[in-house]
Hints:
Low-confidence stretches: 123-135, 233-238
Strand order of the largest sheet: 6-7-8-9-10
Radius of gyration: 19 Å
Number of domains: 2
Amino acid sequence: MAQEQLCTQCGTVAYMKRFMKGSLLTEIFLWFCALLPGLIYSIWRHSTVYWGCPRCDSPNMIPLASPVAQKFLAETKPGQPISAYRVPDSGTGMSARTLVVVLIVIAVLGAIVRINTVVNEAHPKTSVASFGNTDSRTDADQLIKNCGPPFKDDSTAYDSPRPPIVTRFVEYKVKGTHLRFIYVPGNGHVGDPPPYDWKLQMIANVRTNKLYNHDQVSNMMWCTAALPGPRLIAKSGN
């Protein structure tokens, strides 16, 4: 069952919403015009899917019960009820237009998934960004040292304006699974500037938003076996 999350970008409490870039009408038009342009556009659109905040569209959301979320609520609006942060659930059901797209592409769904996997594995885009003092060997730096350059390494530490709760995302693609390691500062207080002592908060599947515990991840990535586990450990099978 879905749980409410706290957006570290705008401070909203809400259920996450599914986002996808591009235009559905354009996708349908390209499929009717020609197979190849429609196929390419569909692959691109589905590679941009993410779950985020229904108010500001940010993907930077953490469980409401996490220590970081509780600390943020206590420091920003002491005594305020959760309803002061909450927005109505916008729902994530399938629309009629989305159903049309599914019916159009179902015959080539297997090919789309296969092509997307081959392209990503053949042309990995490695973007390694270092924030703070890398000599301090934070949880994030230790992961990169043990497992090598990630598929993506990004942070909100130097965003302008900087969100009240900064986060760092380190992503790896392994055995067909796109893993996102999510870190938050383990030192200081809400609103403090960098550098940060990055502590592992959780490990999630980018496409399905499923959480993994330490044992599950170490089975997929042996290099993580000696690293500290996430603070929020998902139940096996979730």
